[in-house]
Amino acid sequence: MPELAEVEFYRKQWDCGLRQIVTRVALHKGKRLFRDTGTERLAVRLLSRRLVGSEARAKQMLFRFSGAGAKSPSLWLGVHLGMTGRLSVAHANFKPGKHDHLVLFQKRQALVLTDARMFGRVRLYEAAEPPGWWTALPPAVTSEDFTPELLAEFCKRRARLAVKAALLVQTRFPGVGNWMADEILWQARIDPRQLCGKLSRARITRLWEAARQVCATAMETVGIDFSDPPRGWLYHARWSGTGRCPRDERPLQTATIGGRTTRWCGKCQR
DNA sequence: CGAGATGTTCGGCT
DNA sequence: AAGCCGAACATCTC
To answer: Is the CB of residue A234 less than 8 Å from the CB of residue A246?
Structure first.
């Protein structure tokens, strides 16, 4: 489920645990979620550490814990929520359910990671600086580095790729997922089946603007309190099979593009 | 009961 | 050889 803004929302769910020490760790050993980091190591290392900060970028989260001693390096917990992951807070006497694979107990509450399908991943690093995979994440769609020129260059290199599939490429559109990709194309009035190489410079600029707008607005709504995106967005129509285009009321088209269910308006998207 | 799901990765094909 | 596509991953819901 989680894309850019949902990830930011979930990250904040653990904020109430800031400045507090982990008193107990519960986890489900051997689950796919922990494929990068042995579960034994995870449990041992997190114990007695203090949660001191967190950040979300793209679909990734990075939680920082204090070192074991004053001079010890920080501990970094990387979390990706996959398709069905979420973070929540529970009472200190919480009993983990079947899909609550990682629970960090603190004095006043428990920080819970739930993920039924386990497409997510958890990884642990001990170092003074954040891990390389984190610092190497591409520039955010809303950043100054994400320029129309960068997008034009990308479209040129991926000339044979449908633009819908292109929007899901995380190295260029970090954090954009399936519903955001559809929203961006609808707002830019571009047919998701269009090949990147066929897009005019003017349409690439429209795509660039729509991408930035959708990402920024999603962060201000979903990212703040999980409230709905603005009225009039495709978002509200795309979930039901009978959904209609908010602009012209035409029934939405449905197809699999880039391996994902895609919905668009055959009239206003060209 | 079968199909599909707001994601990533890998193997194979062009 | 880069780049594209489909399958696999594991579980739940419609």
So the answer is: yes
